[in-house]
Amino acid sequence: MNILRYLYRQAILILSILVILSGVALLLLDDRSIISTVSKPQFHFYFIVQNSVDPFWKEVIKGAEVAAKDYNVVIEFCAPRFNDRNEELKYIDIATLSRVDGIITHAVGTEDFTNAIDRAYYKGIPVITFENDANKSKRYAFAGTNSYEIGKRAAELLIKATNGRGNVAIITNSDSNQDIIENNLKMNGFFSTLKDYKDIKIVKTYTSKMGILSSEEITQKIIESDENINAIFTVSSADTLGAAQLIVDRNKVGEIILIGYGSSEEITRYIEKEIIYGTVASDPYKMGYDSVKTLYNIKRGNSVPTFIDTEIKVITKDGLDEFKSLEEMRKNILKREKSYEQGDF
């Protein structure tokens, strides 16, 4: 009887040890598969943005980083400190010479960008452009919005904010060497929408070349001028933040209406505090995420659209709660789409 009891206990002990060992073995296998996934990315992409200071581009990068994890690719990010087309062109050529698996780049619709993108194409490297397009090049797809429509929506926002009356200054970050086509489309949309509003006068257009600090200096000039300017339209998110900060510093909140561009957390905080009346924005997070997703699908041999519409949003204090809810919902949808593609039901 004692012997049977002893044998029974030994059998239980042996079974327990086997169960534990099996569990450890499975865990090690899982760990190896995880390590394998992380250490052996499927593709190496080069990602080039216009500059490293504008909050817009930081949001683009954030979306791309999430997509890189979701699709198990390595992304090498490159950006000039400030807008510098020659640096962007240099990055495209470096990526081409490095034989990366794909390039995602901000572009300008000029011959030098077209040639740089085509050089990558002839080396078998697919290129996607975003925010600004180079539609004469051999890029595979473009992720962005309609620039004319952005200008139109901004003008409609200005009309509403000023009740159709005001002296307006424009701060644009474009000059003769950068983004002429896209900037002209925005301005055409803006001016065309305002043409029937005789009581809205465009007093002056300024050019910002150095981002936030430059727009602060320009806003200071606007405040000090004797032209009774009571509204400012800024074309970039960096200039929007610079102008907003200067309006706060000079205690001009409520006296100068600011219509801007962008949807970063800093910008939405200014809108919530009624320092910025409202902004028009594309979706930089979606732009970054969808660019990576599209390039991944190209490399996998899947069909992709040649135009990825990242949509236009108009953000004011009245719609801020709805905007934040939609943003959260959108990010959840992206996660669900990824789970669906992987079969993680």
Automatic annotation (TrEMBL):
One of its GO terms (molecular function) is carbohydrate binding. The chain crosses the membrane at residues 12-29. It comes from the Bacteria. Its main location: other. Residues 45-302 form the Periplasmic binding protein domain. Pfam families: Peripla_BP_4. Keywords: Membrane, Signal, Transmembrane, Transmembrane helix. The keyword Transmembrane helix applies. Signal peptide: none annotated. GO terms for cellular component: cell envelope. It is found in: Cell envelope. Belongs to the bacterial solute-binding protein 2 family. This is D-allose-binding periplasmic protein. It comes from Caloramator mitchellensis.
